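INTERNAL TRANSFER SHEET
From: sequence group
To: structure group
Subject: GTP-binding protein

Please process the attached sequence and return the structure record in the designated field. Keep the field labels unchanged so the import script can parse them.
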Amino acid sequence: MSLNPPLRETLLAELGDDTNLTARSSSGIMSPAELTLQRIQMQSSTGAQSKDAAKRLAVARRGASTIALAPKGKPRLLLMGQRRSGKSSISSVVFHKLPPNETLFLESTARIQKDSMASFMDFQVWDFPGQIDVFDNANFDMDAIFGEIGALIWVIDAQDDYLEAVSRLNATVLFLQRGYPNINIEVFIHKVDGLSDDYKLDIQRDITIRIQDELSDHGFENAPVTFHLTSIYNHSIFEAFSKVIQKLIPRLGTLESMLTNLCRTCRFEKAYLFDVLSKIYIATDNATADMASYEICSDYIDVIIDITEVYGTWQRSDESRKKLEGEPWNTKLDEQIGCPTAESCLVLHDSNKPIMLREVDRYLALVAIMRDDSYDRMPLVNMNVEAVVEGLTEFFNITKPRK
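Return from structure group:
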């Protein structure tokens, strides 16, 4: 007795995996060798599909696993945007002091790059590859990415077609406004160094209108989106990052008031509080800022750092410290130093305006542009600067996050 073909196929589908059953064919009994070969083929195809799925899942989770291990408590700056928009170049120039002309040899970012910055305010910079869309991948933990973020920096290449970049930025802003409305969104309209001033403003106006119209259509007219024209070949990128960092400093108005009072008392033209490593100024007085004064002070910091690397302090061995602290001095080395902090003053020949630098701590420096007659009042200037430095030190001790 033989089964009709439809019923036979149904039973084979249900019972084919049972080793105690023998499959029947229309012509008779299937041999054990044929049955074994059929099962090997089925297992091979199933195993290949499982390996492909596991491989895709591993690639998707590669970035998510690193995000889950991110340390808590440090504010983050997220660099996002299209591929080849200049995100890695910005991070390398600002935070790693890479010369701008050497960024041409940087490879395209293939995975999330995370840099921890030891500064007056410990923070992280995350560089997201342009080909990764965190919103299309369910393996990314949005709270781990955006939960402790300080600012989202979206980089747009002004010399390329930016319509797709604007579209992705709009989708990102809408997502953040629904779930994380307090995140500052900074748009860097980048690579504008080769464009005319009128063309720069036209591009900025066009991008601003496209983004604001999209946000208004969805009811987010007051989204915290700010636009900056930037380039790594001038100081505009440092100026933009300064504005970004200032929004993350608690009680920034207190710092600005201290610098404003110092300028009024000592007759300074301009005063900046710089982060020495990145040359980002975290505060300035309320006088109108101009790029020229910032560039002079920033370049002056470079000179001081270069000199410090040659003639500055260095780590001494225990044996060396014992010799210096022994006979005939019998005094600790720290007490033998007349002034543990750095001070300097320079007079520019073209403008005849002294520039003064005063170290606040290992990360911060106060740089001020003085007036022509400032040398006549240097004792008063030094006294006021010392008082401000003490106030700045106390300010950061109070506002520093407790571990």
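Handover comment: The first strand starts at residue 24 and ends at 25. The chain has two domains: 74-246, 252-313+322-399.
Transfer complete.
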